Amino acid sequence: MQSRLVIDYRNATDVAVGTEHGVSLAMLNAVAPKVAAEHGRILAERAAGDQRWMNLPDDHALVEAILAFVDSVKGRYSDYVLIGIGGSSLGAIATIMALAHPYRNLLPAGKRGGPRLFVLDNPDPEKVKATLELCDLPNTLVNVITKSGQTAETMANFLVAKQTLEAAVGKERASKQIVATTDPKDGLLRQLADAEGYTTFPVPPGVDGRQTVLSAVGLLPAAFCGIDIRGMLDGAAAMRERCMTPEVLENPAYLLAAISVLADQQRGKRMLVTMPYADALFGITDWFRQLWAESLGKRLSLDGKEVFAGQTPIKALGAIDQHSQIQLYTEGPNDKLISLIAVDQYRDTVTVESVPAGIPDLDYLKGAELGQLLDRECLATAWALTQAKRPNFTITVPTIDAGIIGEFFYLYQLQTVMGGALYNVMPFGQPGVEAGKNATYALMGRSGYEKLKAELSVVPADAERFRLS
Amino acid sequence: MQSRLVIDYRNATDVAVGTEHGVSLAMLNAVAPKVAAEHGRILAERAAGDQRWMNLPDDHALVEAILAFVDSVKGRYSDYVLIGIGGSSLGAIATIMALAHPYRNLLPAGKRGGPRLFVLDNPDPEKVKATLELCDLPNTLVNVITKSGQTAETMANFLVAKQTLEAAVGKERASKQIVATTDPKDGLLRQLADAEGYTTFPVPPGVDGRQTVLSAVGLLPAAFCGIDIRGMLDGAAAMRERCMTPEVLENPAYLLAAISVLADQQRGKRMLVTMPYADALFGITDWFRQLWAESLGKRLSLDGKEVFAGQTPIKALGAIDQHSQIQLYTEGPNDKLISLIAVDQYRDTVTVESVPAGIPDLDYLKGAELGQLLDRECLATAWALTQAKRPNFTITVPTIDAGIIGEFFYLYQLQTVMGGALYNVMPFGQPGVEAGKNATYALMGRSGYEKLKAELSVVPADAERFRLS
Question: Which of A266, B127, B155, B229 would you label with A2, given CA atoms 20 to 30 Å apart?
Answer without folding.
Answer: B127
